[in-house]
Amino acid sequence: MPNDPPAWMYRAIVEHTQDAIILADRDGVIRLWNEGAETIFGYRADEAIGQTLDMIIPERLRGRHWEGYRKVMATGVTKYGREFLAVPGTRKDGTRLSLEFTIMLLRDETGALLGPAAIIRDVTARWQQEKALRERLAALEAGRAPCARPEQDV
Asked: How far apart are CA 72 and CA 149, in angstroms?
């Protein structure tokens, strides 16, 4: 393995990872869509590239998304490079997804902001399991009588 991996290795990692890797330009138009994105969202790359991110954002959240997106494009700053953002998403068939992702802001050689690249993981199964556990715990707690205190001997 070379110390300085060749470009084809980077390309293979981006193209074939199971997490979605999506690059959008400053206007929110998709410019890169990897195999992981195809699997998670159900759109082939040729269907997604050239479309806006609206195709994977639930309609009720689009206003809030674009407000934040425009702010990041204007300021060049995001906190989601280090923190995970947990959001719902939408597949091609309309099913809802639970997603976690981080982004990095891609800049050209002069430092000009080109757009965000997102690394996205589908956490739907884990979210459903955690929701079921929370509901079960709430039901158990609701059905439990307050703990009786034993009488103390004096």
From this structure: 55
Domains within the chain, CATH numbers bracketed: 8-142 (3.30.450.20)
Contacts 24+ apart (CB under 8 A), 89-95: 89/40, 89/41, 89/56, 89/57, 89/58, 89/120, 90/41, 90/55, 90/56, 90/57, 90/58, 91/40, 91/41, 91/42, 91/56, 92/41, 92/42, 92/43, 92/47, 92/55, 93/42
| pLDDT at site 137 | 83
Instruction: Give the residues across from 107 on adjacent strands.
Output: 113
Global pTM value: 0.81
